[in-house]
Amino acid sequence: MDRYKENRKVFSLSVIVLAFFYIIQMLTVFYYPAEIKIAKGENKSIEVLFPFSLSALHDEDTIVQSTYNEDSTIGFKKTYKIDAMNAGEARFQLKLLGLIPVKRYDVSVVNRDTLIPGGNAIGVRLNTRGVLVVAVTDVIGIDGKRYNPARDAGIKNGDSILELNQVKVKDAEHLVELLNQVQEDKVKLMIERNKIKYETEVRPIKSIQDNCLRLGIWVRDKTAGIGTLTFYDEDSKIFGALGHGIADMDTGNLLNVEYGKIMNAKIANIEQGKKGSPGEIKGVFYETENVLGEITKNSPFGIYGVITDKFIKTNKMKPMPIGFKEEVKEGRAHILTTIDDNRVEKFEVEIVKTQNQQYPSQKSMTIKVTDKKLLQKTGGIVQGMSGSPIIQDGKLIGAITHVFVNDPTKGYGIYIEWMLDQIKSEYLLNRKYADKIN
After folding, report:
1. Which CATH architecture has domain 138-215?
2. What pLDDT is stored for residue 430 in this prediction?
3. Confidence of residue 434 (pLDDT cuts 50, 70, 90)
4. Which of the listed CATH numbers 3.10.180.10, 1.10.10.10, 2.40.10.120, 3.30.590.10 matches domain 115-123+228-437?
5. In the annotation, is 371 catalytic?
6. Is there a smaller number of Cβ atoms within 10 Å at the N or the C end of the chain?
7. pTM of the predicted model, to two decimals?
Protein backbone atom coordinates (compact mmCIF):
# COMPACT_ATOMS: atom_id res chain seq x y z
CA MET A 1 0.00 0.00 0.00
CA ASP A 2 2.82 2.38 0.92
CA ARG A 3 4.58 1.50 -2.29
CA TYR A 4 1.42 2.26 -4.24
CA LYS A 5 1.14 5.69 -2.60
CA GLU A 6 4.79 6.38 -3.31
CA ASN A 7 4.42 5.45 -6.99
CA ARG A 8 1.30 7.58 -7.26
CA LYS A 9 3.18 10.49 -5.68
CA VAL A 10 6.06 10.10 -8.14
CA PHE A 11 3.61 9.86 -11.03
CA SER A 12 1.72 12.97 -9.89
CA LEU A 13 4.96 14.88 -9.49
CA SER A 14 6.07 13.85 -12.98
CA VAL A 15 2.75 15.00 -14.45
CA ILE A 16 3.07 18.35 -12.67
CA VAL A 17 6.65 18.83 -13.93
CA LEU A 18 5.66 17.92 -17.49
CA ALA A 19 2.63 20.19 -17.31
CA PHE A 20 4.81 23.01 -16.01
CA PHE A 21 7.30 22.68 -18.86
CA TYR A 22 4.47 22.37 -21.38
CA ILE A 23 2.85 25.56 -20.10
CA ILE A 24 6.21 27.36 -20.32
CA GLN A 25 6.60 26.21 -23.92
CA MET A 26 3.07 27.32 -24.75
CA LEU A 27 3.68 30.75 -23.23
CA THR A 28 6.79 31.21 -25.38
CA VAL A 29 4.56 30.68 -28.43
CA PHE A 30 1.96 33.20 -27.27
CA TYR A 31 4.60 35.79 -26.32
CA TYR A 32 6.50 35.38 -29.58
CA PRO A 33 6.35 38.80 -31.36
CA ALA A 34 3.23 39.15 -33.51
CA GLU A 35 5.23 41.18 -36.03
CA ILE A 36 8.15 39.27 -37.52
CA LYS A 37 10.76 40.84 -39.77
CA ILE A 38 12.91 38.60 -41.98
CA ALA A 39 15.62 39.74 -44.36
CA LYS A 40 15.21 38.62 -47.95
CA GLY A 41 17.08 35.35 -48.53
CA GLU A 42 17.11 34.45 -44.81
CA ASN A 43 14.75 32.43 -42.64
CA LYS A 44 13.11 32.33 -39.23
CA SER A 45 11.99 29.37 -37.11
CA ILE A 46 8.95 29.19 -34.83
CA GLU A 47 8.38 26.26 -32.45
CA VAL A 48 4.77 25.19 -31.95
CA LEU A 49 3.42 22.57 -29.54
CA PHE A 50 0.44 20.25 -30.02
CA PRO A 51 -2.54 20.91 -30.16
CA PHE A 52 -1.55 24.12 -32.02
CA SER A 53 -0.57 24.43 -35.66
CA LEU A 54 0.66 27.24 -37.92
CA SER A 55 -0.49 27.94 -41.46
CA ALA A 56 -0.38 30.75 -44.03
CA LEU A 57 -3.62 32.72 -44.36
CA HIS A 58 -3.24 33.00 -48.13
CA ASP A 59 -1.19 31.43 -50.86
CA GLU A 60 1.92 33.60 -50.57
CA ASP A 61 4.61 31.28 -51.94
CA THR A 62 6.08 34.14 -53.97
CA ILE A 63 6.94 35.97 -50.73
CA VAL A 64 7.65 33.19 -48.22
CA GLN A 65 7.81 29.43 -48.15
CA SER A 66 7.12 27.52 -44.95
CA THR A 67 8.06 24.00 -43.96
CA TYR A 68 7.96 22.15 -40.67
CA ASN A 69 9.73 19.27 -38.98
CA GLU A 70 8.48 17.30 -36.00
CA ASP A 71 10.92 17.04 -33.11
CA SER A 72 12.25 13.50 -33.11
CA THR A 73 12.44 13.36 -29.34
CA ILE A 74 9.13 15.09 -28.55
CA GLY A 75 6.41 14.08 -31.01
CA PHE A 76 4.04 16.91 -30.11
CA LYS A 77 6.50 19.65 -31.01
CA LYS A 78 6.85 21.11 -34.51
CA THR A 79 9.42 23.61 -35.77
CA TYR A 80 8.12 25.82 -38.56
CA LYS A 81 10.78 27.29 -40.82
CA ILE A 82 9.77 30.40 -42.80
CA ASP A 83 12.03 31.18 -45.78
CA ALA A 84 11.92 34.77 -47.05
CA MET A 85 11.84 34.70 -50.84
CA ASN A 86 10.93 38.23 -51.93
CA ALA A 87 10.15 41.58 -50.31
CA GLY A 88 6.54 41.83 -49.21
CA GLU A 89 4.02 40.96 -46.49
CA ALA A 90 2.73 37.55 -45.44
CA ARG A 91 0.36 36.47 -42.68
CA PHE A 92 0.29 33.28 -40.65
CA GLN A 93 -2.37 32.01 -38.26
CA LEU A 94 -1.79 29.99 -35.11
CA LYS A 95 -4.76 27.66 -34.63
CA LEU A 96 -5.98 25.34 -31.91
CA LEU A 97 -6.62 21.82 -33.27
CA GLY A 98 -6.28 23.28 -36.74
CA LEU A 99 -9.67 25.02 -36.43
CA ILE A 100 -9.81 27.80 -33.83
CA PRO A 101 -7.74 30.95 -34.60
CA VAL A 102 -5.60 31.91 -31.60
CA LYS A 103 -2.95 34.35 -32.80
CA ARG A 104 -1.89 36.00 -36.05
CA TYR A 105 1.70 36.58 -37.14
CA ASP A 106 2.45 39.36 -39.63
CA VAL A 107 5.65 38.58 -41.50
CA SER A 108 7.52 41.36 -43.32
CA VAL A 109 10.18 40.35 -45.80
CA VAL A 110 12.59 43.26 -46.25
CA ASN A 111 15.97 43.98 -47.74
CA ARG A 112 18.59 44.21 -45.02
CA ASP A 113 20.11 47.69 -45.07
CA THR A 114 23.87 48.18 -44.91
CA LEU A 115 25.43 51.25 -43.29
CA ILE A 116 28.92 52.59 -42.62
CA PRO A 117 29.41 52.50 -38.82
CA GLY A 118 30.81 55.62 -37.17
CA GLY A 119 32.47 55.96 -33.77
CA ASN A 120 34.09 59.30 -34.70
CA ALA A 121 34.10 62.09 -32.12
CA ILE A 122 32.14 65.03 -33.54
CA GLY A 123 31.52 68.59 -32.55
CA VAL A 124 27.87 69.59 -32.88
CA ARG A 125 26.79 73.19 -33.45
CA LEU A 126 23.08 73.87 -33.71
CA ASN A 127 21.23 77.11 -34.45
CA THR A 128 17.58 77.24 -33.49
CA ARG A 129 14.67 78.32 -35.65
CA GLY A 130 14.01 81.82 -34.31
CA VAL A 131 14.97 82.17 -30.64
CA LEU A 132 14.06 79.95 -27.69
CA VAL A 133 12.55 81.55 -24.57
CA VAL A 134 14.46 80.16 -21.57
CA ALA A 135 13.09 82.51 -18.89
CA VAL A 136 10.28 85.04 -18.41
CA THR A 137 11.18 87.91 -16.10
CA ASP A 138 10.08 91.37 -14.92
CA VAL A 139 11.12 94.64 -16.55
CA ILE A 140 11.54 97.82 -14.48
CA GLY A 141 10.12 100.65 -16.56
CA ILE A 142 11.38 104.22 -16.70
CA ASP A 143 8.61 105.05 -14.22
CA GLY A 144 10.21 102.71 -11.68
CA LYS A 145 7.34 100.18 -11.78
CA ARG A 146 7.65 96.46 -12.49
CA TYR A 147 6.09 95.04 -15.65
CA ASN A 148 6.01 91.57 -17.20
CA PRO A 149 4.94 92.06 -20.82
CA ALA A 150 5.81 88.52 -22.00
CA ARG A 151 3.83 86.83 -19.22
CA ASP A 152 0.86 89.15 -19.82
CA ALA A 153 0.92 88.06 -23.49
CA GLY A 154 0.90 84.37 -22.52
CA ILE A 155 4.52 83.65 -23.48
CA LYS A 156 6.08 80.73 -21.57
CA ASN A 157 9.45 79.07 -21.11
CA GLY A 158 10.14 76.76 -24.04
CA ASP A 159 8.29 78.90 -26.61
CA SER A 160 10.10 79.79 -29.83
CA ILE A 161 9.76 83.31 -31.22
CA LEU A 162 9.81 82.98 -35.01
CA GLU A 163 8.73 86.43 -36.20
CA LEU A 164 8.34 89.99 -34.94
CA ASN A 165 5.88 92.11 -36.95
CA GLN A 166 6.05 89.47 -39.74
CA VAL A 167 9.85 89.72 -39.99
CA LYS A 168 11.68 86.43 -39.51
CA VAL A 169 13.86 86.47 -36.37
CA LYS A 170 17.38 85.23 -37.15
CA ASP A 171 18.94 85.23 -33.68
CA ALA A 172 18.93 86.98 -30.29
CA GLU A 173 20.76 90.08 -31.53
CA HIS A 174 18.38 90.37 -34.45
CA LEU A 175 15.38 90.22 -32.08
CA VAL A 176 16.81 93.13 -30.03
CA GLU A 177 17.48 95.08 -33.21
CA LEU A 178 13.95 94.56 -34.54
CA LEU A 179 12.38 95.37 -31.18
CA ASN A 180 14.08 98.74 -30.92
CA GLN A 181 13.06 99.75 -34.43
CA VAL A 182 9.32 99.57 -33.75
CA GLN A 183 7.25 102.72 -33.46
CA GLU A 184 3.98 101.13 -32.29
CA ASP A 185 2.84 100.56 -28.71
CA LYS A 186 2.45 96.82 -29.41
CA VAL A 187 4.34 94.29 -31.50
CA LYS A 188 3.05 91.09 -33.09
CA LEU A 189 5.02 87.93 -32.33
CA MET A 190 4.73 84.59 -34.12
CA ILE A 191 5.19 81.93 -31.45
CA GLU A 192 5.70 78.17 -31.80
CA ARG A 193 4.77 75.92 -28.89
CA ASN A 194 4.65 72.11 -29.11
CA LYS A 195 4.91 72.40 -32.93
CA ILE A 196 1.81 74.64 -33.04
CA LYS A 197 2.18 78.21 -34.27
CA TYR A 198 0.09 81.12 -33.06
CA GLU A 199 0.27 84.92 -33.02
CA THR A 200 0.18 87.15 -29.97
CA GLU A 201 0.56 90.86 -29.23
CA VAL A 202 3.03 92.20 -26.66
CA ARG A 203 3.42 95.73 -25.30
CA PRO A 204 7.21 96.30 -24.93
CA ILE A 205 8.38 98.28 -21.89
CA LYS A 206 11.17 100.86 -22.02
CA SER A 207 13.67 99.78 -19.37
CA ILE A 208 15.04 102.21 -16.81
CA GLN A 209 18.32 100.30 -17.06
CA ASP A 210 19.28 101.26 -20.62
CA ASN A 211 16.26 103.16 -21.98
CA CYS A 212 15.65 100.33 -24.52
CA LEU A 213 12.44 98.41 -25.25
CA ARG A 214 12.24 94.99 -23.60
CA LEU A 215 9.81 92.07 -23.62
CA GLY A 216 10.84 90.58 -20.28
CA ILE A 217 12.43 87.38 -21.61
CA TRP A 218 15.78 85.64 -21.76
CA VAL A 219 16.41 83.81 -25.03
CA ARG A 220 18.89 81.39 -26.57
CA ASP A 221 19.60 80.88 -30.26
CA LYS A 222 22.35 78.27 -30.47
CA THR A 223 24.05 75.41 -28.66
CA ALA A 224 27.22 73.34 -29.07
CA GLY A 225 28.71 70.14 -27.67
CA ILE A 226 30.58 66.87 -28.26
CA GLY A 227 29.02 63.60 -29.40
CA THR A 228 29.67 60.53 -31.54
CA LEU A 229 28.75 59.70 -35.14
CA THR A 230 26.64 56.51 -35.33
CA PHE A 231 26.42 55.78 -39.07
CA TYR A 232 26.03 57.12 -42.56
CA ASP A 233 24.64 55.70 -45.78
CA GLU A 234 27.08 55.83 -48.65
CA ASP A 235 24.41 56.15 -51.36
CA SER A 236 22.05 58.74 -49.85
CA LYS A 237 24.83 60.43 -47.79
CA ILE A 238 22.46 60.59 -44.82
CA PHE A 239 24.09 60.34 -41.38
CA GLY A 240 22.75 59.68 -37.88
CA ALA A 241 24.39 60.55 -34.57
CA LEU A 242 23.89 60.75 -30.77
CA GLY A 243 20.89 58.38 -30.53
CA HIS A 244 19.00 61.07 -28.61
CA GLY A 245 17.91 64.61 -29.39
CA ILE A 246 19.53 67.89 -28.37
CA ALA A 247 17.40 69.63 -25.76
CA ASP A 248 17.77 73.05 -24.15
CA MET A 249 19.51 72.81 -20.78
CA ASP A 250 17.08 75.22 -19.11
CA THR A 251 13.69 74.24 -20.53
CA GLY A 252 14.36 70.59 -21.44
CA ASN A 253 12.59 71.19 -24.77
CA LEU A 254 13.90 69.67 -27.99
CA LEU A 255 15.55 72.44 -29.99
CA ASN A 256 14.01 73.41 -33.33
CA VAL A 257 16.70 73.25 -35.99
CA GLU A 258 17.20 76.17 -38.37
CA TYR A 259 20.60 74.88 -39.43
CA GLY A 260 23.51 73.08 -37.84
CA LYS A 261 26.81 71.38 -38.56
CA ILE A 262 28.86 68.46 -37.34
CA MET A 263 32.62 68.88 -37.32
CA ASN A 264 35.66 66.76 -36.62
CA ALA A 265 36.44 67.06 -32.89
CA LYS A 266 39.79 66.61 -31.18
CA ILE A 267 39.73 64.96 -27.76
CA ALA A 268 41.29 67.33 -25.23
CA ASN A 269 40.55 65.62 -21.93
CA ILE A 270 38.40 62.90 -20.36
CA GLU A 271 36.75 63.26 -16.99
CA GLN A 272 36.20 59.78 -15.53
CA GLY A 273 32.70 58.70 -14.60
CA LYS A 274 32.10 57.86 -10.94
CA LYS A 275 29.09 56.79 -8.92
CA GLY A 276 26.74 59.77 -8.69
CA SER A 277 28.84 61.84 -11.11
CA PRO A 278 28.77 61.02 -14.84
CA GLY A 279 32.06 61.62 -16.64
CA GLU A 280 32.58 63.62 -19.80
CA ILE A 281 34.68 63.65 -22.95
CA LYS A 282 35.93 67.18 -23.53
CA GLY A 283 36.97 68.17 -27.01
CA VAL A 284 37.60 71.12 -29.28
CA PHE A 285 36.34 71.83 -32.77
CA TYR A 286 36.40 74.77 -35.15
CA GLU A 287 33.50 75.73 -37.38
CA THR A 288 35.75 77.06 -40.12
CA GLU A 289 37.50 73.73 -40.70
CA ASN A 290 36.83 70.00 -40.84
CA VAL A 291 33.07 70.27 -41.44
CA LEU A 292 31.74 66.70 -41.75
CA GLY A 293 28.10 67.38 -42.50
CA GLU A 294 25.03 69.55 -42.15
CA ILE A 295 22.25 68.83 -39.63
CA THR A 296 18.71 68.92 -41.01
CA LYS A 297 16.78 67.18 -38.22
CA ASN A 298 16.90 67.08 -34.43
CA SER A 299 14.61 64.30 -33.17
CA PRO A 300 14.17 62.55 -29.80
CA PHE A 301 16.14 59.65 -31.31
CA GLY A 302 19.18 61.45 -32.70
CA ILE A 303 20.38 64.16 -35.05
CA TYR A 304 20.39 63.58 -38.81
CA GLY A 305 21.64 65.27 -41.93
CA VAL A 306 23.93 64.99 -44.95
CA ILE A 307 27.58 63.93 -44.73
CA THR A 308 30.23 65.51 -46.98
CA ASP A 309 31.85 63.77 -49.95
CA LYS A 310 35.25 64.60 -48.47
CA PHE A 311 34.54 62.60 -45.31
CA ILE A 312 33.16 59.66 -47.31
CA LYS A 313 36.32 59.54 -49.45
CA THR A 314 38.73 59.68 -46.50
CA ASN A 315 36.83 57.37 -44.13
CA LYS A 316 38.15 53.80 -44.05
CA MET A 317 35.19 52.04 -42.42
CA LYS A 318 33.45 49.32 -44.47
CA PRO A 319 29.67 48.85 -44.92
CA MET A 320 27.97 46.62 -42.33
CA PRO A 321 24.51 45.00 -42.32
CA ILE A 322 22.05 46.20 -39.69
CA GLY A 323 20.54 43.90 -37.07
CA PHE A 324 16.78 43.92 -36.56
CA LYS A 325 15.57 44.52 -33.01
CA GLU A 326 14.28 40.92 -32.82
CA GLU A 327 17.83 39.69 -33.50
CA VAL A 328 19.47 41.59 -30.64
CA LYS A 329 20.23 39.20 -27.81
CA GLU A 330 21.76 39.32 -24.37
CA GLY A 331 25.46 38.59 -24.38
CA ARG A 332 28.71 39.85 -25.87
CA ALA A 333 28.90 42.83 -28.22
CA HIS A 334 31.25 45.74 -28.83
CA ILE A 335 31.07 49.48 -29.44
CA LEU A 336 33.08 51.83 -31.63
CA THR A 337 34.11 55.13 -30.07
CA THR A 338 36.96 57.64 -29.86
CA ILE A 339 38.79 58.30 -26.59
CA ASP A 340 42.39 58.88 -27.65
CA ASP A 341 44.47 60.15 -30.59
CA ASN A 342 41.26 60.89 -32.53
CA ARG A 343 41.20 57.21 -33.50
CA VAL A 344 38.05 55.08 -33.63
CA GLU A 345 38.58 52.00 -31.46
CA LYS A 346 36.68 48.81 -30.64
CA PHE A 347 35.70 48.14 -27.01
CA GLU A 348 33.99 45.06 -25.54
CA VAL A 349 30.59 45.41 -23.86
CA GLU A 350 27.83 43.10 -22.70
CA ILE A 351 24.13 43.46 -23.47
CA VAL A 352 22.55 42.58 -20.13
CA LYS A 353 18.91 43.26 -21.03
CA THR A 354 16.81 43.87 -24.14
CA GLN A 355 13.36 45.40 -24.38
CA ASN A 356 10.56 44.06 -26.58
CA GLN A 357 9.53 47.41 -28.07
CA GLN A 358 6.80 48.08 -30.60
CA TYR A 359 7.38 51.84 -30.56
CA PRO A 360 10.61 53.90 -30.64
CA SER A 361 12.42 54.51 -27.36
CA GLN A 362 15.89 55.72 -26.42
CA LYS A 363 16.15 52.88 -23.87
CA SER A 364 15.96 49.72 -25.98
CA MET A 365 18.70 47.76 -24.20
CA THR A 366 20.93 47.91 -21.16
CA ILE A 367 24.68 47.88 -21.86
CA LYS A 368 27.55 47.08 -19.48
CA VAL A 369 31.13 48.03 -20.35
CA THR A 370 33.50 45.07 -19.81
CA ASP A 371 36.57 46.33 -21.68
CA LYS A 372 39.42 46.93 -19.19
CA LYS A 373 41.06 49.68 -21.26
CA LEU A 374 37.81 51.65 -21.57
CA LEU A 375 37.02 51.23 -17.86
CA GLN A 376 40.49 52.44 -16.92
CA LYS A 377 40.31 55.43 -19.26
CA THR A 378 36.71 56.63 -18.76
CA GLY A 379 35.22 54.58 -15.93
CA GLY A 380 32.60 53.30 -18.36
CA ILE A 381 30.09 55.30 -20.39
CA VAL A 382 30.56 59.08 -20.25
CA GLN A 383 28.96 62.13 -21.83
CA GLY A 384 30.21 62.54 -25.38
CA MET A 385 29.96 58.80 -26.12
CA SER A 386 26.27 59.11 -27.03
CA GLY A 387 25.86 57.74 -30.54
CA SER A 388 28.70 55.20 -30.29
CA PRO A 389 27.59 52.33 -32.56
CA ILE A 390 26.84 48.96 -30.92
CA ILE A 391 27.80 45.89 -32.96
CA GLN A 392 26.83 42.27 -32.34
CA ASP A 393 27.47 39.21 -34.53
CA GLY A 394 28.83 41.39 -37.32
CA LYS A 395 25.70 43.57 -37.45
CA LEU A 396 25.11 47.20 -36.47
CA ILE A 397 22.31 46.87 -33.90
CA GLY A 398 22.14 50.27 -32.16
CA ALA A 399 23.85 53.15 -30.42
CA ILE A 400 24.72 54.24 -26.88
CA THR A 401 22.30 56.89 -25.56
CA HIS A 402 22.58 57.33 -21.77
CA VAL A 403 24.74 56.44 -18.76
CA PHE A 404 23.50 55.20 -15.37
CA VAL A 405 24.40 58.03 -12.98
CA ASN A 406 24.86 55.62 -10.06
CA ASP A 407 26.82 53.07 -12.12
CA PRO A 408 28.83 54.55 -15.02
CA THR A 409 29.82 51.06 -16.21
CA LYS A 410 26.22 50.70 -17.43
CA GLY A 411 24.00 52.65 -19.77
CA TYR A 412 21.19 52.45 -22.31
CA GLY A 413 21.27 51.84 -26.03
CA ILE A 414 18.71 52.45 -28.78
CA TYR A 415 17.87 49.92 -31.52
CA ILE A 416 19.28 50.97 -34.90
CA GLU A 417 15.85 50.46 -36.46
CA TRP A 418 14.42 53.32 -34.41
CA MET A 419 17.17 55.59 -35.73
CA LEU A 420 16.55 54.47 -39.31
CA ASP A 421 12.84 55.22 -38.93
CA GLN A 422 13.81 58.87 -38.40
CA ILE A 423 15.67 59.21 -41.69
CA LYS A 424 13.18 57.54 -44.03
CA SER A 425 10.97 60.62 -44.06
CA GLU A 426 14.05 62.83 -44.32
CA TYR A 427 15.53 61.34 -47.49
CA LEU A 428 14.16 63.91 -49.95
CA LEU A 429 14.82 66.80 -47.55
CA ASN A 430 18.41 65.70 -47.07
CA ARG A 431 18.99 65.33 -50.80
CA LYS A 432 17.95 68.98 -51.11
CA TYR A 433 20.96 69.94 -48.95
CA ALA A 434 23.50 67.52 -50.39
CA ASP A 435 24.76 69.67 -53.26
CA LYS A 436 25.06 72.71 -51.00
CA ILE A 437 27.57 71.16 -48.60
CA ASN A 438 29.61 68.93 -50.94
Report:
1. Roll (2.30)
2. 45
3. very low
4. 2.40.10.120
5. yes
6. N
7. 0.81
